[in-house]
Each structure stands twice: as C-alpha cells, then as structure tokens.
C-alpha cells in the first residue's frame, strides 16, 4: 500500500542515523494488510503490519501493527516485551464498549499482539499468558467494565518474592563465608 507507506515515512522518517528509541519506518519491507473485521467495525481502523527500526542494536528491526483511520491518524501496537510506551493503539481499543467485546473481538486483539512477535497462550476466560522464551513473563487480562480494559501484569508477585528471598539467602551465606 503506497499511500500508507508515504504516511508512515512522513510520520516515522528514517534519517540514516541510529537514534536509540526512535522508531523509523522501513519502507524496503512489505506492508501486510491484517484482517480484523470485528475490530475494524468497532474502532473504524484498518490494520496493517510493517517493519520499523528502533535505533537499538538488539531488536534493531521489529514488526509493528498499525491501525489507520480514514483521516490518516496512525496508531501503533508494539510487542509488550519491547515497550508499551509506544503502543498508542491501546487507547482506541479501550474505547470499545464491553457489550461489544465478545470472544471474536478479543481473539482479534490477541491476534494483533501475536503479529508483533509476542508469544501468547490462553489461560482461561479473558486471561492470556505472555511468554519470554520458555518463561511465563506477564498475564494479559481483558476486563469488561463499561469499556474494554486491557491490562498486562506480572505473573505473580510470589515468584518475585521467592527470587528476592533466595537472593538474600545467597548473599547472607556469601558474607558468612567471607568472614
């Protein structure tokens, strides 16, 4: 899609200089149209996937999902492992009324996250597991209040407490051995 390529090149230009954290559209790669009829119906957005450079050495080029309105407003969805701060697409998703957020719509949102490279499996109901390699990293929860609410939370604070407890134990034994 050349019109979208021009819009993305203008909004996220490649300067030829690597700047950490600055997204730049990579027009040498194909823009892929994503089929999300439920989301398109309730958000008015058309969805695509494109490649962007990040300015970082690791994850230097990533897949980003793009939502575009008819008046060329652009929203981005980035793999949560990389950063949530750039994911402006969450705002229009959270404007969807809960009464409209059925299983097929939630499945389409999960599909969009997977298109960013996120590895996701269903836990139950409206909860999904985000993976970092073989490790359970975060839980994605779709809460149905007045509007759809999407939250990504740590798996368990107990796991964190267990790791801290082990770290303190190891540190105490290290100091005892040093004395």
Automatic annotation (TrEMBL):
<protein>
    <submittedName>
        <fullName>Uncharacterized protein</fullName>
    </submittedName>
</protein>
């Amino acid at each position: 899609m050349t019109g979208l390529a021009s819009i993305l090149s203008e909004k996220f230009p490649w300067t030829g200089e690597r700047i950490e954290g600055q997204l730049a559209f990579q027009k040498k790669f194909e823009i892929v149209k994503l089929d999300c009829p439920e989301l398109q119906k309730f958000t008015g957005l058309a969805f695509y996937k494109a490649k962007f450079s990040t300015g970082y050495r690791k994850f230097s080029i990533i897949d980003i999902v793009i939502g575009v309105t008819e008046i060329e407003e652009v929203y981005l969805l980035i793999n949560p492992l990389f950063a949530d701060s750039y994911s402006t697409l969450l705002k229009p998703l959270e404007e969807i009324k809960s009464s409209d957020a059925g299983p097929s719509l939630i499945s389409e949102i999960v599909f969009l996250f997977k298109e960013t490279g996120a590895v996701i499996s269903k836990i139950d109901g409206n909860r999904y597991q985000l993976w970092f390699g073989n490790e359970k990293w975060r839980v994605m929860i779709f809460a149905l209040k007045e509007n759809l609410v999407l939250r990504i939370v740590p798996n368990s604070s107990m796991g964190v407490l267990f790791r801290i407890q082990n770290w303190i134990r190891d540190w105490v034994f290290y100091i005892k051995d040093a004395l």
